């Protein structure tokens, strides 16, 4: 449709409508691409064993009992507990240890602040595989803690580069005047941090906590290194793969388990949607 | 603390400085310890082991540059792993940026049901990588997978996806496009930040859709595109979980997560550098070679990071 200057009035009105149709047709097509995988996974997860082996798309009967069967799979509840422990405790430790560091990097004036910040960013960018071998040797041979999740949880008590970076970005936006007036009122730095900074930084802290929770929940590499020998220490993300083999060629139970591992993350997202999207924006746009 | 007197004796000033320095150290201490113990030490130890022969049973023995020449010159899997990683970095990152920008543009134009579409486009990004991979291996499985069933019904020749060396990496790219939510949000925010007046001014000047994108949108979002490219490169160099799980599941010989199989099924086409580090260090117990490869990965990662620090200046310049 070539735009001409002498366009008849009817066409002028038609253009927004055509634009609307074009945009929303594309949107529906894109939505199918993003949503259909979930739909197929859900449909397969309620099929009978026999039907799951066929190529049929719609379940003849809806076997919701597949989900209870997943819970009865040996290990599943243990992995659930381990995932919660790793993600819950890991998040708590990360936030507690990273907030003071981020505060110092954002608000204190000291020599070496810039190099310190660059080291934080460098650590953040580092592939975890680079340093894993010596770390594994220490945990396994010196401390005899392989076969557990502690080698993954303990380091989080000493700050996480990504959390420090995001929190610092957020704390930079707090005006210095608030901190100075607190000091005039006789607050020490620690009290200023706890009474003034933390309440003001709640959205940033919430976003960082969510990211860390998701990171731990999704982590595959960490449990593979440290927990592989001991199925009692596996997490859901790590154990999920074994469903396919434990249940032979049947995809139905594997798909049910897949949805059950996704569920907590999706639930958390719906409760904290705003925080989360703000957090993702924080990583990129305000950087 | 009371207001300081105009002239202060030197010792008190010095004491104050010491106190401030101690305070700073106190606040930074978690990270200072963490950085030294969980980053500094293992990095030095990786360098040390790269010159050692060490099978994790007998004591390490010095072998000079043997590990280095072995990995860089003779190790059969090094070339393919590096090639696959580079392939993924180039193809996956560029397609993700283009697709993410497209979805971002689309989302900013949706008038009806914007909330629904935004959530639908975003949700797959939240799926844990392992679950998304398991789901895609199922969806794309050549035997009974819904995608190939649908393609068959339409009479379109269906590829073998994760089971075909030529299609395995493109399948991983498809999986990464499904989880485009992070880029969508970033691009959406950037696009909404472009001042409306600029579009209106350009339209008055007779600029068409393409010209408006080229001269108004693009200059405004270039920094975000750069950011997406560089962080994408960093992430893709670490690409591990999806490739590993897809290869293991598609190979069909998986006997659970502890199983030891040659990584990179089919035909080494999904073997990435991080997987090779794992395979060397934890399956072959060739600590020296694994550490050499770690350092190669480290060098590339640092090169990209320094580029990031120079190009997207916003990352560090936001000092107050």
UniProtKB/TrEMBL annotation, chain A:
Tagged with keyword Transmembrane: yes
UniProt keyword annotations, A-Z: Cell membrane, Membrane, Sugar transport, Transmembrane, Transmembrane helix, Transport
InterPro entries linked: MetI-like (IPR000515), MetI-like_sf (IPR035906)
Gene3D superfamilies cross-referenced by the UniProt entry: MetI-like (1.10.3720.10)
Domain ABC transmembrane type-1: 80-272
Keyword Transmembrane attributed: yes
Membrane topology, as annotated: Multi-pass membrane protein
Pfam families: BPD_transp_1
Transmembrane regions: 21-43, 84-106, 118-137, 149-171, 192-215, 251-272
GO (cellular component) term, any one: plasma membrane
A GO biological-process term: transmembrane transport
Subcellular location: Cell membrane
Matches recorded under PROSITE patterns: ABC_TM1 (PS50928)
Membership in a protein family: Belongs to the binding-protein-dependent transport system permease family.
Name of the protein in question: Multiple sugar transport system permease protein
Organism annotation: Streptomyces eurocidicus
From TrEMBL, chain B:
One Pfam family this sequence matches: BPD_transp_1
Compartments where found: Cell membrane
InterPro entries: ABC_transporter_permease (IPR051393), MetI-like (IPR000515), MetI-like_sf (IPR035906)
Keywords assigned by UniProt, alphabetized: Cell membrane, Membrane, Sugar transport, Transmembrane, Transmembrane helix, Transport
Keyword Cell membrane belongs to the record: yes
Main location (coarse class): membrane
Membrane topology listed for this record: Multi-pass membrane protein
Domain ABC transmembrane type-1: residue ranges: 82-308
GO CC term (a single one): plasma membrane
Residues passing through the membrane, by range: 24-44, 85-108, 120-140, 172-194, 215-234, 287-309
GO biological process, alphabetically ordered: transmembrane transport
KW Transmembrane helix (keyword) present: yes
Family per similarity comment: Belongs to the binding-protein-dependent transport system permease family.
Protein name stated in the entry: Multiple sugar transport system permease protein
Species annotation: Streptomyces eurocidicus
């Amino acid at each position: 449709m070539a735009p001409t200057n002498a366009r008849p009035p009817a066409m002028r009105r038609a253009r927004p409508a055509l634009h609307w149709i074009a945009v929303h047709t594309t949107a529906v097509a894109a939505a199918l691409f993003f949503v259909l995988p979930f739909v197929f996974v859900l449909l397969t997860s309620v099929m009978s064993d026999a039907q799951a082996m066929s190529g049929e798309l719609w379940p003849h009967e809806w076997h919701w009992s597949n989900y209870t069967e997943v819970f009865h799979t040996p290990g599943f509840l243990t992995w659930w507990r381990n995932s919660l422990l790793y993600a819950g405790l890991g998040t708590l430790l990360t936030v507690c240890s990273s907030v003071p560091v981020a505060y110092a990097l954002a608000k204190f004036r000291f020599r070496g602040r810039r190099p310190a910040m660059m080291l934080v960013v460098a650590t953040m960018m580092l592939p975890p595989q680079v340093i894993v071998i010596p770390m594994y040797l220490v945990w396994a041979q010196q401390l005899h803690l392989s076969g557990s999740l502690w080698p993954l949880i303990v380091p989080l008590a000493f700050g996480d580069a990504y959390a420090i970076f995001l929190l610092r970005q957020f704390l930079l936006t707090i005006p210095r005047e608030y901190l100075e007036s607190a000091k005039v009122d006789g607050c020490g730095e620690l009290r200023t941090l706890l009474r003034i900074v933390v309440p003001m930084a709640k959205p940033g802290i919430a976003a960082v906590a969510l990211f860390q929770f998701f990171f731990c929940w999704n982590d595959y590499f960490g449990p593979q290194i440290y927990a592989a020998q001991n199925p009692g220490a596996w997490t859901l993300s790590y154990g999920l793969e074994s469903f396919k083999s434990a249940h032979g060629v049947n995809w139905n139970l594997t798909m049910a388990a897949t949805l059950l591992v996704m569920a907590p993350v999706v639930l958390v997202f719906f409760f904290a949607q705003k925080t989360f999207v703000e957090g993702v924006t924080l990583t990129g746009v305000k950087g | 603390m009371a207001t300081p007197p105009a002239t202060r004796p030197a010792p008190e000033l010095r004491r104050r400085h010491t106190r401030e320095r101690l305070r700073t150290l106190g606040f930074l201490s978690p990270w200072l310890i963490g950085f030294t113990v969980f980053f500094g030490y293992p990095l030095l130890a990786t360098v040390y082991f790269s010159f050692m022969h060490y099978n994790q049973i007998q004591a390490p023995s010095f072998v000079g540059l043997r590990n280095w020449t072995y990995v860089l010159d003779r190790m059969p899997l090094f070339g393919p792993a590096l090639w696959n990683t580079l392939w993924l970095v180039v193809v996956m990152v560029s397609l993700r940026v283009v697709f993410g920008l497209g979805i971002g543009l689309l989302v900013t134009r949706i008038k009806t049901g914007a909330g629904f579409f935004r959530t639908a486009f975003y949700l797959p990004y939240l799926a844990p990588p392992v679950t998304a991979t398991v789901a895609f291996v199922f969806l794309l499985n050549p035997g009974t997978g819904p995608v190939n069933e649908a393609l068959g019904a339409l009479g379109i020749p269906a590829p073998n996806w994760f089971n075909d060396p030529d299609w395995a990496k493109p399948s991983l790219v498809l999986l990464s496009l499904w989880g485009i939510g992070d880029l969508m949000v970033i691009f959406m925010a950037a696009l909404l930040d472009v001042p409306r007046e600029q579009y209106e001014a350009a339209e008055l000047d007779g600029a068409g859709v393409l010209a408006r994108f080229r001269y108004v949108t693009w200059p405004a979002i270039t920094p975000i595109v750069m950011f997406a490219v560089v962080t994408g490169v960093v992430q893709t160099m670490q690409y591990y979980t999806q490739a590993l799980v897809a290869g293991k599941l598609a190979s069909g010989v998986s006997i659970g997560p502890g199983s030891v199989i040659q990584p990179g099924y089919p035909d080494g086409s999904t073997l990435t550098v991080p997987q090779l580090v794992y395979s060397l260090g934890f399956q072959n117990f060739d600590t020296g070679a694994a550490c050499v490869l770690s350092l190669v990965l480290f060098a590339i990662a640092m090169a990209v990071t320094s580029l990031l620090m120079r190009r997207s200046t916003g990352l560090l310049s936001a000092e107050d």
